[in-house]
Design goal:
Layout lengths: L6 E4 L5 H12 L3 E6 L2 H10 L5 E6 L5 H13 L2 E6 L14 H27 L4 E6 L12 H20 L5 E7 L10 H10 L6 H13 L4 E3 L2 H12 L1 H9 L2 H10 L8
Parallel strand pairs: 1-2, 1-4, 2-3, 4-5, 5-6, 6-7
Helix pairs in contact: 1-7, 3-4, 4-5, 6-10, 8-9
């Protein structure tokens, strides 16, 4: 997919991966429509970018129909060629510590919002000579990890949506890319999550590393990307021999529960 001169919509652009991705796309010559929930943080992202590369910014909550429709209208107005669904949230904690509102909010922002925004733009994207939908998921979209039951449900769903939609659009010029980062150093991770990852020895990437890999995958017309070789291995192992992964994660369960019950807190939405 050619990025130079193409208009790219990036949701969650005020967050860590979205912010880094805006910079990488600008360096690749793309024109940007940036969406985020926080006007101040999104304005700071725009200030970091070269003059003229940002066509429009949209402040709002993509779980809200009116805000989502405003972004879709801007995307059509500027002839969007690539939609990158980055926006999302997280909530680390055991399932019985979550409220109805917690469950609904996380599924709405991580799964329903990208599905609905993609659906709103699909007719436009089909009419282009080439187009792409990029869904930024998670390694936890292939491995169920304790303390992340709702998050995993949303990311498993996004991976399934990406796979099914890609096959549905196989006879069109629209391609679908699903990217699964592993732990990434962003404000989405609470102190509890960072402490747990350190205690378990989990690797983490900088947002800039993730953004560079996403841009490379877009340019190469890739369909599926899992970042980190241990994560790729365990995702395949979890499919082939889930009992082995059950036992491995069972050895970590005491540590996970310690952080989930004593330090759990909500991570911000991007």
């Amino acid at each position: 997919m050619q990025l130079e001169g193409s208009t790219v919509v990036v949701t969650g652009a005020s967050g860590g991966i979205g912010r880094a991705l805006a910079g990488e796309l600008a360096s690749a010559g793309a024109r940007l429509i940036l969406a985020g929930r926080d006007a101040g943080r999104l304005g700071a992202v725009v200030d970091e970018l070269p003059d003229g590369c940002v066509r429009e910014t949209c402040i709002g909550d993509l779980t809200d129909v009116a805000d989502r429709d405003r972004l879709a209208a801007a995307a059509r107005r500027h002839d969007c060629a690539v939609l990158v669904n980055v926006c999302g949230g997280n909530r680390f904690g055991l399932l019985d510590h979550q409220s109805d509102a917690d469950v609904d909010a996380l599924l709405a922002v991580n799964l329903a919002a990208p599905i609905q925004l993609t659906r709103a733009l699909l007719d436009h994207l089909r009419r282009r000579p080439s187009a792409m939908v990029v869904n930024v998921g998670s390694a936890y979209g292939a491995i169920g990890f304790p303390g992340y039951a709702i998050y995993c449900a949303s990311k498993f769903g996004l991976r399934g949506f990406s796979e099914a939609l890609g096959r549905e659009l196989a006879d069109t010029a629209v391609r679908v890319l699903h990217v699964a980062p592993r732990a990434t150093r962003t404000s989405m991770n609470s102190d509890a999550v960072n402490a747990m990852n350190q205690a378990l020895g989990n690797a983490a990437d900088d947002p800039e590393q993730v953004a560079r890999r996403i841009v490379a995958a877009i340019r190469a017309d890739e369909r599926r990307v899992v970042i980190g070789w241990p994560e790729r291995f365990f995702a395949r192992l979890n499919q082939a021999l889930p009992g082995v992964v059950d036992r491995a994660l069972g050895q970590q369960l005491r540590t996970v529960k310690r952080f989930a019950t004593t330090h759990a807190q909500e991570e911000p939405l991007s």
